[in-house]
Amino acid sequence: MSVTMCQTMGFLVSALGFAGIIAATALDPWSTQDLYDNPVTAVFQYQGLWKSCVQQSSGFTECRPYYTILGLPAMFQAVRALMIVGIVLGAIGLLVAIFSLKCIRIGNMEDSAKANITLTSGIMFILAGLCSIIGVSVFANMLITNFWMTTANMYTGGAISGMGGMGGLQTLQTRYTFGAALFVGWVAGGLTLIGGVMMCIACRGLMPEESNYKAVSYHVSTKTPGYKTSAYEDKSKKSIYNESRRSEDGKSYPSKYDYV
Fold first, then answer.
1. d(C-alpha 30, C-alpha 73), whole Å
2. Segment Disordered: which positions (predicted)?
C-alpha cells in the first residue's frame, strides 16, 4: 500500500469513527429495559447519558433530562467525561489531518512538516478511540453489575429487596441491558483507533530520507606515520677526513691519504 493510500484510508476511517463517537454520545438508548420476563408491556424504558425516556405502546415517547449533576453516580459522570474528551480529541485530530494530507498542497509546506502533522493527528485519533472504548466499557460494566444485583433481589425475600415481597416470590423490578448506543460506541472507537494507527504508519513514508537522522560513524585512522630510524652519523668526525689542512697562504698541505 502506498503512503498516500494509507494516509487517505486512515483519514477516512478515522473520520467515520469520529462521527460514530458523536452519534453514540448523543443517542439515548445506552441502556434499555430487559423484556426477558415480561415481553408484553405497555411501557418501555431506556436511558442515555443525558436523559431517560419512556415509550408507551401507543408510540408516544416522553424523555426527561437529568436535572442534577452531583446526584449522578461518579462512574456515570466519568463516562460522560470520557466521551466528551474523545469528541474533543477527535475534532482536533480531524482538523489537523486535513492539512496533513499529501494530496493537498498548502503553500511551500515541506514533507517533513506534513509527516509531523500526520503523526500528531494519528495520536489524537488513537486517544479519541481509546476514550470512546473505555467509556463505553465502563458503562457496560455498570449495567452488568446492576443487572445481576437486580436479578438477585427479584428472587429474594422482601427483607432483602425492600419491596414487601414474600420469600421465594418474584418481585417487580426493572432490569436494564445493553442498548444500541453501546455497540455504536464500541465500533466507532475501534474505527477511530485503527485510523489513527494507519496515520502513524503513513508518517514514516512521508519523512524524507535526509531527515531520517541516521547515526554517522567516525572511524579513527589506525595508520600512524612511520618513523625510520637510522644509525647516527657523526658529521664532525667525517669532516676531519674530508677537509684538508691549509697553510696561511691558502695552499693545502699534502695528507697521508694523497700517497695511498
1. 15
2. 238-260
